[in-house]
Amino acid sequence: MKRLFFIILGTLGALGFAQDLQLQPIAKVNLIKTEVITVKQYRSEVERTEKTTGRPLTADLRKQILDMMINEKLVLQAAERDKIGITENEVNQQIDRLRTLLARNIGRQPTEAEFATAVKNQYSLELPAFRDQVRRQLVLNKYLEAKKGAIINSFKEPTEEDILKTYDLTKSQFVRPDVVRFSMIQIPYGSNAAETRRTAENLVREIGSNPTRFDEKVNNGRVPNANLGYQSFKDEYIQKDMQSQQMMGADFITAAFALKQGEVSPLLDNGQFFRIIKVTETYEMKTLALNDIFQLGTPYTVRDYIGNTLLQERQLEALQKATEELTRELRTGRSYEDPDNSRDCKRVFDQIVW
Q1: Three-state secondary-structure class, residue 235
Q2: Are 135 and 90 contacting, i.e. CB atoms less than 8 angstroms apart?
Q3: pLDDT band at 196; cut points 50, 70, 90
Q4: Mean pLDDT: which of 172-176, 189-193, 349-353 is highest?
Q5: Helices in 124-240 by DSSP H: which ranges?
Q6: Are 25 and 38 in contact, with CB atoms under 8 Å apart?
Q7: CA angle, 234 then 238 then 239, to 5°
Q8: Residue 93's pLDDT band (boundaries 50, 70, 90)?
Q9: CA 354/CA 350 separation, integer angstroms
């Protein structure tokens, strides 16, 4: 009995120690006031990052997470000191931009629940926490622009010579596989399998091999709230590659690339959808030249792609340089404590078990 009593006490003691450790400060920021980063906050951020990236972080990357948390608090305190902030309207505008992107992906305005789910899936945050993160990021960006705008805007636009040199070194990457442009009628499996099949077979009979009749059905399905029992898609592009096959299924790829231009397919069934497709254009595999369209369905050329990629790389380099200079300045003196400069923080840091 005594032995069992001591085991229980030992277990409770270990649990109490673990809970106490979670509340211990692993870092402190003291620029204008004292704010702590606890083990619990730190672990939560590491776990969220691992969930978002889908892989465990190395010890060095976990330490970088802590450095980023310290830098964020330093910049936010500096912004508060210098009276640089943002409005709720600015936060709303940023969130509305994300809603618009989601609406484009799903073809309609998302509900509040759908938007919250999308945020949770992409950022591993509930909507209130995500809103707070957006607010903090906007403050960080505004303060960085105010203090280091000259560095941020110091990048040089890529020249035609830069674009030509990059293309010459990377043109083997600009190989477009066989592509078809197509329209599609898609009937999702419902709770009543027999009814779903009847809908699909009725459409096949009505369309037959008549491409004009197929186009009429596609246009009808694109009318908002038509509620015809099927979905329709127009002027879509798909490549003949493994990624497309994994996404659409082997039967779909085989059928799409066997059809002649203007030809309507028989009924396709992948176990989730019934589909009928019509190919409207075919493109053979080729190495793209600078003035070729990089993304079919857009005016976006290979030259545009290379120019924008080089521009983004230079903007990112300038932004990183500005960020490093700002945080280096804010880390002077006794503005913060972490495991590298504080014995107490290091003691707590060394007790964390991953």
Answers
A1: strand
A2: no
A3: confident
A4: 172-176
A5: 127-152, 160-170, 193-207, 211-221
A6: yes
A7: 165
A8: very high
A9: 11
Q: What pLDDT is stored for residue 8 in this prediction?
A: 52
Phi, then psi, of 276 in degrees rounded to 5: -130, 130
Question: For residue 112, how far is the Cα from the chain centroid?
Answer: 19
The H or E element containing residue 28 is strand 25-29
Amino acid (one-letter) located at 151:
I
Question: How much is the pLDDT for 226?
Answer: 66
Q: Are 200 and 268 in contact (CB under 8 A)?
A: no
- Calpha distance 133→144 (Å, rounded): 16
Q: Which amino acid is at 78?
A: A
Domain boundaries, the chain: 23-153+314-351, 175-287
pLDDT tens by residue, 230-241: 889 999 999 999
175-287: CATH topology = Chitinase A; domain 3 (3.10.50)
For the question of whether the overall pTM of this predicted structure is more than 0.70, the answer is yes
Q: Please, what is the end-to-end C-alpha distance for the chain in angstroms?
A: 34
Q: What is the C-alpha to C-alpha distance for residues 11 and 212, in angstroms, rounded to an integer?
A: 75
Nearest to 140 by CA among 197, 86, 63, 217: 86
**CA 49 to chain CA mean position, Å:** 13
CATH of domain 23-153+314-351: 1.10.4030.10
d(CA 83, CA 146): 11
Scanning the structure block, which residue is given the tokens 């300038």? 318
With a pLDDT cut of 90, the percent of the chain lying above it is 77
Please give the C-alpha separations between residue 275 and each of 1, 184, 187, 271, in angstroms, as whole numbers.
Answer: 70, 7, 6, 11
- How far, in whole angstroms, is CA 209 from its chain's centroid? 41
- Statement: residue 9 has pLDDT above 70: no
State the pLDDT at residue 15.
44
CA distance 23 to 17: 10
Give me 192's structure tokens: 């009543």
pLDDT at residue 3, rounded to an integer: 56
